[in-house]
Amino acid sequence: MPAILLAADQTFSLNRSLSCGQVFRWNREQDGWWYGVVGERVIKIRQEGATLQYEGAPATFIKHYFSLDTDLDAITNSFDCDPVIHTAITKCRGLRLIRQPAWECLISYICATNSNIPMIRKRIANIARDFGKPLEFGGHTYFSFPDPSALAAACTSTLSDCKLGYRSPYVVDTACTIADEKGWQDTIAALPYEQARRELMKMQGVGPKAADCILLFAFQNYAAFPVDIWIRRIMQEHYIKLQSSNTALTGWEYDLIRRFARQHFGTYCGYAQEYLYAARDS
DNA sequence: ATCCAGGAAAACG
DNA sequence: CGTTTTCATGGA
Question: Which residues have CB under 7 A from strand B?
Fold first, then answer.
C-alpha cells in the first residue's frame, strides 16, 4: 500500500476536505476508508496523522487532486481578518479545495440548484450508473462520470430515472454545447474571472451561483464567492445588512455580497467562503 | 400538509 | 428593464 507523508507545515484534513460539500462522489465506508471515482479511476484513501494511504492512482495524481502543492497556511492566514472567519478557520483546519474535473463539476452544480447535498449526491450517482462506464475495484462495481457525448445523446426521457426533475433538459442542453465545443475548458481557464463567469452562465442551467462554484472548484479561481442560502444567512448575520431575510436572493443582493466578500477577504475569498460554509453546522 | 434545500428560467408588469 | 412565479424531488 503506497503512502504519502505530509510535511510538518503541510496542513491537511482528508475528512474535512471530502465531507464539506464541494465533491459529491466520495463515500466513507464502514472500514474507515474513503472511496471515490475521479475520472476513470477508483481511489481508496485514508489519513492517519501525517500519513495518507491510498490506492488507485499515482502519488502525483493524489497530490494534485487534493491541492497538496499549495501553501494552505499562507492562504488561510491571508483572510484570517475577523472573529467569525477565524472561528471557521480554526474549526475546519486542514480543509483544502479539491481540483475537480471541470465537466463533471459543471453538471454537478447544474444538478444542485434548489436542492440539498444528499439529493445532489444521489443524482450524480444515478447519472454515472446509467451513462458511465463500469469500473471494477475491490470486488465492487463503480461507475465513471459519462462523457459529454454520452449525455448529449440522452434524451430527456432516458434521463428520467436519474431524478433530475426540471434540471434534465438543462443537463442535455449543456452536454450538447460542450460536446460540440472541445477546448471549452481551456477557453474558460484563460479568461479573467468576470468574463469566465459570464461565459459559463451562457450554458443552460448555469446561473451566478453555479458559475461561481464551477470556477472555484474546477478552475481554482479563488475570486469566486458562491452565495447560496446558507452563505447569504451567514453574511447577513455577521457581515452586511440586507433588507429581507427569507425572500429569494436577488441578483442585486448576490452581487452586493460577493463584492463585499472580495473586498473583505481578498484574493482567496472563495476559500474563505468554503470555510464559512463548512463551519455552518454547529 | 407545509416547508426547505450549494437556484435558475420563464413569465410578468 | 427589474421583479415574481414556476419548476421536480425527497426529507423533515
Answer: A 20-22, 109, 112-117, 119-120, 166, 170, 201, 203-211, 213, 226, 228-231, 246, 248-249, 273-274, 277
